[in-house]
């Protein structure tokens, strides 16, 4: 059965995540990153729990909170730290190494074979993201680099373990569990580390609704669906769609200039994503009917 529909559906999630920077900077109050992360994750998780009416069993609680921490609490917190210490392009380029991390973790935790084409595609994709986002004055701050690498490792581990620990429930319920757990972990941190939010405007509420309903509830549902169906290294490469979308939105919405080097970077990223999907196809593909008939008559 063709994997193309699953790949295209899953790619929608990181493509939509690429709008996060635009929505955060243009629609949300500045200076409340952890609080906004809570408002993105927890309401979305509770909404999905209300829809699915499915709670994790006691045996699954530890694993759900571990996944919620890796995929949301740790990942988003370290990503915010990286954003405060690095230009956005540098942070995004460093975190894109998660594609390589997933290949290594999948080998150790799932026994997945390491394909040379997948490794080359990941390295090429990281190069493309660098061309797409890095400017000549990109600064390298050690704290920011460490935070970005930590964020990449958290997301990579969360992706592989989400594949390893597949509960007997639909992807929508799995997403609900993890979003709720991640939001609950972030909630006390936001109360301790940040002041109360100012009164929210209609613009702020619209941004939160987008990030919560679309950027969290809908996208993580289809992301975890894809994690369950697509080889981990291939699904992690789809995450590189996010910076491509971010640059395109900056060009279309904010009128930011788009250089030939950035266009080349976007082409390289898209090409590496395509190669990674082709490299991860199972070896036992069904041969065309004309070839089968030929072999039978030979």
UniProtKB/TrEMBL annotation:
Location within or outside the cell: Membrane
All residue ranges annotated as the EamA domain in the record: 7-133, 144-275
Membrane topology annotation: Multi-pass membrane protein
Chief subcellular location: membrane
UniProt keywords, alphabetically: Membrane, Transmembrane, Transmembrane helix
Stretches assigned to coiled coil: none
Keyword Oxidoreductase applies: no
TM region positions: 32-52, 64-84, 90-110, 117-137, 143-162, 174-193, 205-223, 235-254, 260-279
UniProt superkingdom: Bacteria
Family: Belongs to the EamA transporter family.
Protein name: EamA family transporter
